[in-house]
Amino acid sequence: MWADYLIFLLKTVTIVVAIGSVVILVVGAATRHRDDDDKGHIKVEDLSKKLDRVRQRLEEAMATDHKLLKKQRKAEKKAEKQEAKVRAKSDQDSANAKPTAWVVDFKGDMSASQVKSLAETVTAIVTIAQPGETVLIRLESPGGVVHGYGLAASQLARLKQHGLKLEIVVDKVAASGGYMMAALADRIIAAPFAVVGSIGVVAQLPNIHRFLKKNDIDVELHTAGEFKRTLTMIGENTDAGRAKFKEDLENTHRLFKEHVAKARPSLDIDAVANGEFWYGSDAVENGLVDEISTSDDVILKLHDAHRVMKVSFETPKPLAKRLSIGVMAMFDDVLARLSSRHTPYF
């Protein structure tokens, strides 16, 4: 019996491996023959239609007079057709239609790797949006590299330069580089316990010079320019190098403070630019945030008077990357479950 089972198992594994190999070859061939245009594309989602569909389903589920509801649906469809005709007319006539509100998601990491997608999205919006229309950024970022978030903030500044109204809503966190981006908004909205602020600069690096010296390992570092290198991981650091490194951090902090102060002139920058962070409710009191709400409610309010469209730049992910993302998500879930026994919750 066990011999038969082993033979069956080997056959099954062979078939699965063969099918998997064929799939990988097909996907690989398709990937190699992609055009440059397939490296990414703009995706547009009509959030207004999505909200209307949700409302209609709820109304249908709760309706007691189905004849009346059917009549209302007929009237709504007629109104939608009329609105479509208005949009199809000349620019002068279409001015009577609802203005568009544009929604963009930005979920930043330490390396600000999403900046390219943000740049493509901003470019798409400014080519079609009318001056005075609203762009809502749903921002989530704990900050990261200075040059990356500096460029991300510059991309948001482009929206304002094209005459668009910029609103940023923070549901979870916009700290350090995240707040550098948020500060540019005409209005900053945050959830009650969203983390904002952290206007400061930090840098750290290990130094293994003493370990190398103890093991008779020499390291030679040659530079042209007194401050080409200040602190290193393997060389012997000096007090002069440490002082210069600290001076560079202070200069970066000064630029950060000037950026925020220019964007929000009513803010007491010296009081809030000490690296400290605040929750949304407290952030309103010191001027870091203008209003307390969530992105869901902000979009609902926009939906009353706007056609709400979500815009994003999507890049195709190779099969191997999609599989690795799934495996990492499973691994993170297991770790979270194991650590939850010892982690306090709020």
TrEMBL record:
Entry's Gene Ontology BP terms: proteolysis
Biased composition (Basic and acidic residues): 77-92
Protein name as annotated: Protease SohB
SUPFAM superfamilies: ClpP/crotonase (SSF52096)
Enzyme class at the top of the EC tree: hydrolase
Cellular location(s): Cell membrane
Major location category of this protein: membrane
Taxonomic lineage from the root: Bacteria, Pseudomonadati, Pseudomonadota, Gammaproteobacteria, Oceanospirillales
A Pfam entry, by short name: Peptidase_S49_N
Occurrences of domain Peptidase S49 N-terminal proteobacteria (ranges): 3-156
Record-listed E.C. numbers: 3.4.21.-
Keywords of this entry: Cell membrane, Hydrolase, Membrane, Protease, Serine protease, Transmembrane, Transmembrane helix
NCBIfam families for this protein: PRK11778.1 (NF008745)
CDD domains linked: S49_Sppa_N_C
GO CC entries: plasma membrane
Ranges for region Disordered: 68-93
Domain Peptidase S49: start-end pairs: 159-306
UniProt GO molecular function: serine-type endopeptidase activity
Record family assignment: Belongs to the peptidase S49 family.
Residues spanning the membrane: 6-30
